[in-house]
Design goal:
8 helices, Four Helix Bundle (Hemerythrin (Met), subunit A), two-stranded antiparallel sheet, globular, about 5% strand
């Protein structure tokens, strides 16, 4: 039984590659003129600020595509689980523009990878300790929906 993408509803019927190519640019455009004060606002009490959302997006771009690369390069790969809340303190001191630049740069590199994958590579499976058997394509779809999920939060801060 395939594991359901936790961001499937955010992705809707969009193709993951199209969403990955589009959403980062939408985020860049949305926050381009924000002040430092705006980056410290949150979409809801007790939730991450816009700056921390950008840090999280950069961390996710790094972590999940590293999983994909390992799965593509190492037959029988088993991913290591990570907790986003444990990762956040590592980079939470980054300013918003640095986090945005890291996210956008990594996305550019990763898009080049995603676009070149063959169907066999997209379907390459690997093991995850919590979710069981996944594929590289599952990561792509998860990341695409994840971006849209956080874009909605940034849009809520903007309004």
């Amino acid at each position: 039984m395939p594991v359901v993408n936790p961001y499937a509803e955010d992705l809707g019927n969009r193709k993951p590659l199209d969403a990955l190519a589009d959403t980062a640019e939408r985020i860049r455009h949305l926050v381009a003129s924000w002040s430092d004060d705006t980056f410290e606002k949150s979409y809801a009490p007790g939730k991450w600020s816009a700056r921390l959302i950008l840090v999280h997006l950069a961390q996710t771009e790094l972590a999940l595509t590293t999983r994909a690369r390992f799965a593509l390069a190492q037959p029988g790969y088993t991913a290591q689980a990570f907790n986003q809340d444990d990762w956040m303190p590592i980079d939470e001191g980054a300013d918003a523009r640095t986090a945005l630049a890291a996210y956008l740069s990594l996305r550019g590199l990763n898009l080049a990878m995603w676009k070149r994958l063959t169907k066999d590579q997209v379907d390459r499976s690997f093991s995850h300790p919590e979710y069981g058997e996944l594929t590289v394509g599952w990561i792509m779809a998860q990341m695409a929906g994840h971006d849209i999920h956080h874009l909605k939060q940034l849009e809520a801060i903007h309004t």
